[in-house]
Amino acid sequence: MSLLIRCCAALLLSLSLPLAAAPMHSQFLPPDDLTLRDAEPEQQQLMQVTDYSVVIGAQRQSNQQPIPVTSPLMIRLKGKSLNKGATINQVLVNFDGESKSLKKPVFDDKSKTLTLFYPLAQYRVVIDLLRNDTVYVQFLSYANGHIWADLHTGSTRAR
Q: CA-based, 20 to 30 A from 66: which of 4, 9, 94, 144?
């Protein structure tokens, strides 16, 4: 009987302690070898994707010579926020096949939109994830200026 009482006391004690400051989906973050994430994130946005659309655009600026023609490729993700304080409701995933370096992820509080940039080579991988798994989008920003954003699935059993 005393073991049961000790277990209950330990459970009550653990429930009364403040929750750890780790992000909700921290198990999906890569190792932090440079200790860029050594403090609590200032902001976390976590969204479960519920639907998506693919947008392939074409634009031509007629006021420049020679006339540049571009064809942006983007996936618009909609979903539901999962963590307390999150306001995210959409993600724009842009694919770039020309730049040498990608732009950093940006979260706009006003429009509640996260914009991500991936190389064009990742397009097929992202589409396969969206078609076959439950996908989450995570955005973390830290006081030291470090930003982390990802698309990830939940844990899935191998077949």
A: 94
